[in-house]
Amino acid sequence: MTPDEFRSAGYELIDWIADYHERVGEHRVASDVEPGQVRAALDGPPPEGGERIADLIADLDDSIVPGLTHWQSPSFHAYFPANAALSSVLGDLVSSGLGVNGFSWVTSPAVTELETVVMDWMVELLGLPDQFVGNGVIQDSASSGTLCAVLAARDRAVDSGADPTRLVAYSSAQAHSSIEKGLRIAGIPAARLRVIGHDDAFAMQPDALAAVIAQDIVDGWVPFFVCATAGTTSSQAFDPVTAIAAVCRPHHIWVHLDAAMAGIAALCDELRWVNDGVELVDSYLTNGHKWMGVVFDCTFFWVADRAPLLRALSILPAYLRSDAADSGAIDYRDWQVPLGRRFRALKVWFLLRIDGPEPIRTMIRDHVAWSQLVDQWVRADDRFEVVAPTALNLLTFAVRSGDGPTQDLVGAINASGEALVTPTVLDEQRAIRVSVGGQYTKLGHLELLWELIQQLADDLDL
Q: Does residue 152 surpass a pLDDT of 90?
């Protein structure tokens, strides 16, 4: 493909993407294709010659789009928001078009230095503590950020003389599954992850944490890592970070704060409580690619002290050495597991420069207010109960008559194609999660969702 051919095809594809965003609400939210159906439509020998862009677009329309879950749909209320602001899409396009690999400062200085600028911007925009200035990096996902936090914590403990076979970690049952996965990758088996009890709001209990840590120390274990969560996946619970840090500080335990979805709410001054205690933690992350609208993948990850992270991840063969690094330039390859690095900062830079933060703040405030309205609607219907506090933009509720009817209602909502929600389990009770976070979601879409829920509840005779 020549630049001229690219230019022509690019115009068509930009139009196609813009049209998709304009009409995304017209699609079934979740695909109803059968397993193997997409492959059967597209299978065959690989092409031997070039095809027209029009033929590819036809296949996108006929085979790919019908096989998608439409995460940009205003009626997508499952999992978490995955907003793809079009300003950010433009930045991602530029990143792909430049085709650079910024694993070291010398491989593309602008990749490194723009990332540092953007990460420091986010410190200011989120009201994060000064110790994070200059200590941030963009990871691909929260799972990778968590793994890096675990590796840094392990390095710090071992560097202080701890036996790596005696290290133990702590989280609540509400913590994300990536905590256990990251520990396992780091050589800490699941048996050495202590699950700490939670209160009625599903937040970790600091007294219970203190008791388990004290017993582990008596038993010869070495506590090294605690994950607190600001906005858990199933219930959006907020662990008491200040109290947890106070428990950990005397034992020099690394405290990691996972604010993957909810942390971005701190763009709004009145919602900065979501990060209460963040000044006391060793590492912190939140996702730009969820509520904020940075197109996937983009996780903002900070450490208070970069030294343990670099000790854990830095490898310096001769072919990666440089005078720039020796003089203090950042090589972000040493802040992550893989070597290669995409130019992720561009899509954040484009979003903030084209749109600015104010539209994001307005969207967040709307979603929080509308979630409270949905909470009121559910509480006013005797067939349902809210099973966790609606703190921000996640409503968790159940059918009062039991787990079976709750599961039936989830299935009926999702089978309708008109909306998509997620089932979960809280203290052995099945529940329904309604996430309000889509960039195109308006109050009217939530009113339609509630009408659908009530109609299906009537049909199921709940």
A: yes
